[in-house]
Amino acid sequence: MKINIFNEQNIKHIDIKKVEEITKKVLNNEIGDSDYEINILITDNNTIKKYNEEYRKKNGPTDVLSFEYGLDEETIGEIILSVKKIEEQAPKFGNSFEKEFFYILIHGILHICGYDHITENDKRKMFELQDKYFNDLF
Questions:
Q1: Average per-residue pLDDT in the chain?
Q2: How many other C-beta atoms are found inside a 10 Å radius of the C-beta of residue 52?
Q3: In whole angstroms, what is the distance from residue 109 CA to residue 22 CA?
Q4: Distance from C-alpha of 90 to C-alpha of 58, rounded to nearest angstrom
Q5: Quick one: how far is CA 28 from the chain centroid?
Q6: Is 13 annotated as a binding residue?
Q7: Rounded to whole angstroms, what are the CA distances from 77 to 58, 59, 69, 85, 94?
Q8: 97-112 and 16-31 helices cross at what angle (nearest 10)?
Q9: CATH architecture of structural domain 2-137
Q10: So where are the chain's domains?
Q11: Can you give the pLDDT at residue 68?
């Protein structure tokens, strides 16, 4: 497993070692440790807004985007996180920035592993798993 982390923002300090550690633990539990890569881009609202508009056809920034390429691919996916959006929404959920950042990171990783929240049943499963990982790892 190779985790490529690109921190292209200077808004907040991000514990890159912790990003790698949490990513590795979730991926090991979900899909195992084999010969694959994942890319994680930590950025700002302007950059994620461009991706959101281009790929999802939605206006404005979002907290996280996950692009799942398939678990049998060399690069299984990419996660893009907006530090600014996460910072803005953290108080709404009663979280510090750091808690919200890692909660959202886990959410993005689970999408790469094939989870989604389209149906109510899928949503319940994904968020229960997300909460479990967050409580275990954070």
A1: 97
A2: 20
A3: 10
A4: 22
A5: 15
A6: no
A7: 20, 23, 5, 21, 30
A8: 30
A9: 3-Layer(aba) Sandwich (3.40)
A10: 2-137
A11: 96
